Target: Pyrroloquinoline-quinone synthase
Amino acid sequence: MQPDELEAALRDIGARRYHRLHPFHHLLHSGKCTKGQVQAWALNRYYYQAMIPIKDASLIARCEDSAIRREWRSRLVDHDGDMDGEGGIARWLKLTDGLGLDRDEVTSLKGLLPGTRFAVDAYVRFVREKTLLEAIASSLTELFSPVIISERMDGMLSNYDFVTRETLSYFDKRPPQAARDSDFALDYVKRHARTPDAQGLVLAALEFKCSVLWSMLDALHHAYVDPKHVPPGAFVPKDQ
Amino acid sequence: MQPDELEAALRDIGARRYHRLHPFHHLLHSGKCTKGQVQAWALNRYYYQAMIPIKDASLIARCEDSAIRREWRSRLVDHDGDMDGEGGIARWLKLTDGLGLDRDEVTSLKGLLPGTRFAVDAYVRFVREKTLLEAIASSLTELFSPVIISERMDGMLSNYDFVTRETLSYFDKRPPQAARDSDFALDYVKRHARTPDAQGLVLAALEFKCSVLWSMLDALHHAYVDPKHVPPGAFVPKDQ
Model:
């Protein structure tokens, strides 16, 4: 494939496999979730958010090129911020605060679904163990995140009276960051994946990452959408 | 031990084991090295410099505390800089340039001593595999670096006509960075190593790190100081 054909194939994976298509997101964005279900979503997704800088530092830790490390470092800044209370993780906790969840309960991870943990941990392990090309390619779901974020903002603000713009401040910041990051990653894989083997690895990495995000929502859907099957030890919403 | 006793024990390790005491440094700083020996030192030490951000990102990658990750991130900034040509690695390459080494030869690592590679790789592995406490403690050689750097600057500038202040710009920047970093790491180990077992691990981590630095100079001394024993494939100075 030529680089632009590879890009088209990557975008096609997004069109078919990105978690924007997941039934749970349809419920969430169209106002069909209970507050408890929104809480469960935010509490589980917190683990993903909390592990993102660990994933990104793992990528930097295997990268011998100072320029790529420097570029990737901006992701650490985005998520950890420059001081306490700043950055994506802190903004995610504003969301869980706004939804009425106890912050210590969220950060303790006690109510986390095992399916969320295993999916997120698989992502971190993928980035640590696969090639740098695959690790970078696995970040490419960010190509598709601006659309889902705008749907989520609009949908949640208009459909839930317990959600405010401030609660959702995490999502305000993400689209430009995601666009910058996915531009870099897309350019990298287009330049470095020039053989059929390498292009196959890149496509598989993006499919893998789509599966991570999809699997997290599957676990959530199975546990919290009727008929509910909350596994032992997992978060139980008060309105359930 | 009380925290201050632990600090005293750490400083005692530095007084006995830090590579400031290594015979090669006495030669280097007192003007007794040939230009070829100074080149060999800078070329080998380049690998240490190049791996430092990889070591630091490895530490960040295992750290669940956003505040510690944020603090440690400043080390990535110091070494990789904010743009091309900035940061500690780029400044180290100014040193190897100034010593007349070919930059591609330096960065290719082709002439590196195996002993340098193994010591540096052992350090990175230590930070990846030991506890976070030990990983942080292993950075504490920076407590002792301002003194050796000032001895090196003075000694090399007054003793070698092929060394200029600009060539040594790497060392200008390091003392305040090292002081900030070692203050943080020392405070961390004093607060977190409160049992005899934990304190033993902290002391052993610093001894380990002193051994890494010492071993690098042993390899250099054995290869390049009379009677020379340059191993197959390693850098051979033109003046040898």
In short: The radius of gyration of chain B is 18 Å. Chain B has one domain: 3-27+35-224. The first helix of chain B runs from residue 3 to 17.
